[in-house]
Every structure is written in structure tokens, then in C-alpha cells.
Write a structure and sequence with these properties.
The protein is about 35% helix and about 15% strand. The chain has about 350 residues and is an alpha/beta fold. It has one domain: Aldolase class I (TIM Barrel), CATH 3.20.20.70. It has a seven-stranded parallel β-sheet with strand order 1-2-5-6-7-8-9. A two-stranded antiparallel sheet has the order 3-4. The longest helix is centred in the middle third of the chain and has 21 residues. It is globular, with a radius of gyration of 19 Å. The chain binds flavin mononucleotide.
Length: about 350
Amino acid sequence: MAPMTRSMSPDGVPPSAAAGYYARRAAADVGLVITEGTVVDRPTAANDPNVPKFYGYDALTAWRPVVEQVHAAGSMIAPQLWHVGSAQPSKGEWTAHSSLESPSGLVRPDEPHGEPMSESAIADVIAAFVGSAAAARRLGFDAIQLHGAHGFLFDQFFWPALNRRTDGWGGATVAERSRFAAETVRAIRAAVGEDMALLFRISQFKTQDYNARIAHTPAELEAWLGALADAGVDLFDCSQRRFWDPEFEGSDLNLAGWAKKLTGRPTITVGSVGLTAEFVTADAGRPDSLAALLRRHERGEFDLVGVGRALLSDPTWAKTIRGGRFDQVRDYDPAALGSLH
Ligand SMILES: Cc1cc2nc3c(=O)[nH]c(=O)nc-3n(C[C@H](O)[C@H](O)[C@H](O)COP(=O)(O)O)c2cc1C
């Protein structure tokens, strides 16, 4: 299950319905649940008060039954740890916080707001991620995912349009701009030990600019992900809007395919899996079909497949597909966004 923000946690505390919501997918053959983005202990880590926190007694107590029920249903679970940086909320009015945390005090390329993060703010944010990771371990989560995608804080450091720093946290190369994420990964690894899997989510696109790219060539992708793998990332979750989009010219490998080839780490592919009923019936000649997805998997392009919206509409989607009951597969219905069913 791909991480999906639901904005249904008043004051940052997951509601009691969250455990059943995740456990229903777990009970129906989802092997790994990655939770919605859940924020670390910094005043501006969230840009929406209904996003869950991953710190503090009330929120952590509310996460406990989520882990227990997902485990009881036979699945594994990782929290997605998040800091939005200077990203604006996707819906509603944006009230800019005076002290947003971002690499260079930019909310978009050339749109200033606030100050660049100080050395002490950077250290405090890393410490906040470590605090949440340690809490995940204590609560019995199986793995941790860092949200390094979609133009949020880690991605703002990767992205030269928002990271204009000339100190040790910026630079002309993606390896230099990866230092903030790499240092966070190292600090988490030191705190949680070697046997807890650390997943890192990346994307080329940003919510601020769908055409933005961090890596223009395989060599840049290797430098970027190599820095993170060396720091201790075990698996890359490679977010694309469509899993069948080739990442670079001259090959049909997608982002997860390249990430695996270049780092040797396992990867997750994700992006528009199963949004229509034709997904299951079309043959492998259609690049967006189940048959084409399976062919990529058999070629070893990636290890896991992330499913987002299809699992919101139908909690039993994975079980239905696994059982080959293709006549029961329905198109994705956006009405599912309205509740935690
Ligand atoms: C309602 C919704 C909320 C999302 N929230 C997050 C999030 O918190 N963190 C994240 O990394 N991606 C988030 N995403 C992206 C999904 O994880 C996934 O990559 C995307 O929806 C594509 O997969 P799909 O086509 O199977 O839905 C969200 C997507 C949706 C639809």
C-alpha cells in the first residue's frame, strides 16, 4: 500500500478508525503497508493540522493499535516520516507560517519566503527524524520510510531550484545536495540499528513543478542514490505518476528499474497501477496493463509494486487480483477519498 495522506487526524492524532482502515488492506493480501505521511516534531513539519504526528504521547499512543492490527492481519507496516519544508498545502487557503524551514528560504523557484535553515535548525530537524524513527522501533513497526519525494523538505535540498546554498548543505552536484538526507539516514541508522529496514521515497517530479527533474542522466541518478545507499538506505520507493513511463531515452526501464540497476538495492515501483478494470484484461502489448507490469517484474526491474488509489476504492483489491477474480475488478472511484473505509 502506497503512502497516502488522508487528512483525517484532528490535532495530528490518528482517529480510532485508522487501525481498521489499514488492517482491512493488510487482511486482504497487502504485504507491506506504508502509512500516510506522518510528521516529525518540528513546528512547521506539517502544513495541515489534520495530518498525523509521529511524536508526542497522544499521537504515538494512537499509532499503537494500528501496528498491532496490521500485524494481527499478517502484514508488515512502515510509517512514512515527513517534513513538508516550505511546500504549500494542496487544498485550502495557505497561511504562511513565519518560520518555514527550507534550504534557501524559497517556496518555489524564485519565490522567497522566510530564511534559509540555520545549522542549528538542520541539526534539530535531523534529531526530530531520529526521534520519530526511534519511536517507530519502540512501537514495533517493521521498517521506516523517509519521504524524500514530491518537493517536500528532503527533495527541496535535492532540487537546485530551491537549494541555492553555498555551504556544505548545497552545491553544484546532486551528491552535495544529498548530504542533508544522507546525514539524516546515517543518524537514524545509528539510532535504530542495522536490522531495521530503511526505505527512502524519491521522485523526479515535484508538486511545485511536474516537469522538474533531479537526475537528467543515469550518471546523475547513480550519484544521487549512491550517496543515499552509502548512508544506509536499504530500498528505494520510486514514485512516478505512471509506472510505464521510461525514465531516460534509449531504454524502457522506469525509475525503479534504473534505481535498482544502478544501486543494486531493491526497489518499489508505483504509479497508476490498476486504476481501470481494463488493467487486468489487456495484454502485455498495452504498457499500462497487469501483464506488462508482471513482465517487468519477471525481468527483475523492481521487487515490490506500490498501489495507492486502487486500494482506496477497494480494500480487497490485492486479494482479488491475486485470486484472479478479474470480473470483480472495478475502475477507481474518487468517492473513496471521502472516508477511511
Ligand atoms: C489521496 C492521496 C494522498 C497521497 N499522499 C501521499 C503521501 O502522504 N506521501 C507520499 O509519498 N505520496 C502520497 N501520495 C502518492 C501515492 O503514494 C502514490 O505514489 C500515487 O497516488 C500514485 O499511485 P496510484 O496511482 O496507485 O494512486 C498520495 C496519493 C493520493 C491519491
